[in-house]
Design a protein that fits this description.
This protein is α+β, with helices and mostly antiparallel strands. The protein has 2 helices and 12 strands; from the N terminus they run αββββββββββββα. The protein folds into 2 domains: 63 residues; 257 residues, no CATH class. Helix content is 28%, strand content 45%. It has a 12-stranded antiparallel β-sheet with strand order 6-5-4-3-2-1-12-11-10-9-8-7. A hairpin with a 2-residue loop joins strand 8 and strand 9. It starts with a helix and ends with a helix.
Length: 324
């Protein structure tokens, strides 16, 4: 009986150790990637932002609250290399009176595990510069998220306005509603990004139109759940202004951040997803290995004990047959 129990214990122990390896090196990598059918809407806002009203009857800066809706859909039918996903993002910025201030669209391929941009010729990567007018885009760095298992280091993050990736530096851990997040800060230095033909009256000039410079500066703060690499909040301190002949006019200056409800939803999702991913990566495999090793060692000891008992019984039978 003991030998049967020993065999069962050894077999179950080996099975659990193999299962631990499968969980860590197969199941975890499968889960630690962006789903190919992702779809979501992110809500942001900015209070008392200064924006330029381009209405010919106004042509002046105004202060208003902004509502920002960013809708993202994965193109599951895109022709991509293994591990690459393609997201199409549409963003609409609305003033407090309901009028549309800005709209933009982009299509971006990136690695589903690292979150970093991918140069993919078949993925059709573009940015919409005007309604129906698109330009090919070659991006670098992180696009929409940080890597699964985010580390305490700097990550280059893509900024479409300056057309390059700028490092977001790790600046410590924080708690948001009980969730531990990593704080990364990216600062884009003041940069002249384009020139625009603007009515001279905007700058008090008698000229009918002038070529004004558009200057841009950005400080982004990301609050990232490290197991999933998902930002649960993003705060953007943006300074964008038109400059001409020593005069500056705000074009879009303000602080943009996720709405409170959006943060609550993202934190709730991150808590459940990080618990599952963290368990699949470390806790579940470790428990399976410990349990499997215990059963394996126990089975071997039990089998050895059963073997010694069998030897002793055989010895007694030999003595009896010999008449001793």
């Amino acid at each position: 009986m003991r030998s049967k129990l020993a065999a069962v214990s050894v077999g179950l122990g080996v099975f659990l150790i193999v299962a631990a390896a499968l969980v860590r090196f197969y199941a975890y990598p499968v889960l630690a990637t962006v789903p190919p059918d992702y779809e979501g809407v992110t809500k942001l806002e900015a209070e008392d932002a200064q924006v330029f009203n381009s209405d010919p009857q106004v042509l002046a800066p105004e202060t208003t609250d902004l509502d920002i809706s960013s809708r993202t859909i994965a193109d599951s039918g895109a022709k991509t290399p293994d591990g690459v996903v393609v997201w199409v993002n549409s963003t609409t910025v609305t003033r407090a009176d309901g009028s549309v201030f800005q709209q933009s669209r982009e299509r971006a391929p990136f690695d589903g595990t690292s979150g970093a941009a991918v140069d993919c010729k078949t993925c059709d990567s573009w940015t919409e510069v005007a309604a129906g007018e698109r330009e090919p885009a070659l991006r670098k760095g992180q696009i929409y998220k940080f890597p699964f298992d985010t580390q305490k280091t700097a990550y280059p993050v893509w900024d479409g306005t300056v057309g390059k990736a700028v490092d977001a530096k790790f600046e410590g851990e924080e708690k948001i509603d009980g969730l531990t997040v990593y704080k990364f800060v990216q600062h884009v230095e003041p940069t002249m990004v384009e020139t625009r033909e603007v009515p001279g009256s905007v700058f008090g000039s008698p000229e009918a139109s002038v070529d004004a410079e558009m200057w841009y500066e950005m400080t982004r703060t990301f609050y990232v759940e490290p197991a999933t690499g998902s930002p649960v909040n993003r705060v953007e301190d943006r300074v964008q202004e038109l400059r001409y002949d020593g005069t500056s006019v705000p074009a879009f200056t303000g602080t943009v951040h996720y709405t409170e409800a959006q943060v609550d939803d993202l934190v709730a999702d991150a808590k459940s997803n990080s618990t599952l991913l963290g368990g699949m990566r470390l806790m579940f495999p470790a428990l399976l290995v410990l349990l499997g090793a215990g059963l394996l060692v126990g089975g071997l000891l039990l089998g050895r004990h059963a073997g010694r008992g069998g030897d002793r019984r055989a010895g007694r039978r030999d003595h009896e047959l010999a008449g001793v």
